[in-house]
Here is the input.
Amino acid sequence: MGRLVMKFGGTSVANIDRIRNVARHVKREVDAGHDVAVVVSAMAGKTNELVEWCRDASPLHDAREYDAVVASGEQVTSGLLAIVLQGMGIQARSWQGWQIPILTSDAHASARILGIDGTEISARFKDRKEVAVISGFQGINPQTSRITTLGRGGSDTSAVAIAAAIRADRCDIYTDVDGVYTTDPRVVPKARRLDKIAFEDMLELASLGAKVLQVRSVELGMVHNMPVFVRSSFDKPEDIDPHGTPPGTLICSEEEIMESHVVTGIAFSKDEAQISLRQIEDKPGVAAAIFGPLADANINVDMIVQNVSEDGKTTDLTFTVPASDYNRARDTITSSKAKIGYARLDSATDVSKVSVIGSGMRSHAGVAAKAFKALSERNINIRAITTSEIKFSVLIDAAYTELAVRTLHTLYGLDQA
Ligand code: ADP
Ligand code: ASP
Ligand code: MG
Here is the structure.
């Protein structure tokens, strides 16, 4: 007997039939004798619709009210799943973020979890074997008592945080794919499912664009050393052997991984925009004049590339920002033009970032060089490059994203046999 968190994403609860299927998965674990807390997302497409309604109502809306609106999707699914479970004779109760409570910061639309009180949920496991059905994605700020949300994909984070709070043995993330693959299996059919992946590698994959898990959920898993298992909700509950190991990917600490490859996986992000400032003065303080105002405007700058000046007077500087922040970034820079001092601002929004990830890169030289050659043979132009210990990224024209990902996937021997 153990304690489990089971999280179901949007496609897994897309309609009442799917919710019934989820309930059968929950029943399977309850019947096996486990204490179960379930975390649910909103029905597929619902959060997008709610976000769109807010924009329609007013493009410049109050973030507190945005959260009040978008958190409602999860409220519906938690209630529905509790109803279905009760109909199957299972004790179940729904919980909203504020009822538990899941305390968060007041950064509306991208709040961070500060703490979760798991006492009541744990007590109910003991007293009445009651399944807790918890709305993912939402919490409450203790100072303002207002509903908050954790950023898109945030139910993953709710699930791992709850698993840590109730000291679960494992957090199962049920989704529409049967695990974490070497790259998005919808883009590369030859992608291979990984049996295990280290938290560190998963953190890079997620933060560089693989949306199978929200980045913060991987961070929490790592901090609490909570094993996270990604698996499919589409497997029929009846077909699952209660004593076997179902298909899926375990995200765990590096020591638990026997076999390690130089490259673990490839991620990509089309949500990129490039800004290049031409002929900025090559003197101390220029970078601060550019990136200070961007930071003040809460714009996340990602890749930064600056040339070494040829004449000692001026140089070029290129950086990327999320495409959704492009207009604001551009306005921020142009309004500081006099202070920064540059001749021209060039930009491109049809760019994407392709990243190769692997903790094995630490001890191998020449991994990136191979990629540059392979991309050039495909005539793919690299606009910017960044590297770190366990990954490198290239910025390319968005039209070549799929080709680049497939080329690199084959190059590093990741294709399925
Ligand atoms: P959910 O609604 O269950 O949270 P998401 O849509 O957020 O599901 O995440 C699952 C999706 O992540 C998959 O359908 C897949 O297309 C995408 N994905 C991107 N990269 C990967 C990867 N490396 N491995 C598995 N899935 C990936
Ligand atoms: N429903 C939220 C979203 O679509 C949270 C989640 O699904 O994880 O972003
Ligand atoms: Mg998700």
Remarks:
- Residues 23 and 224 are 28 Å apart (CA to CA).
- The chain has a mean pLDDT of 95.
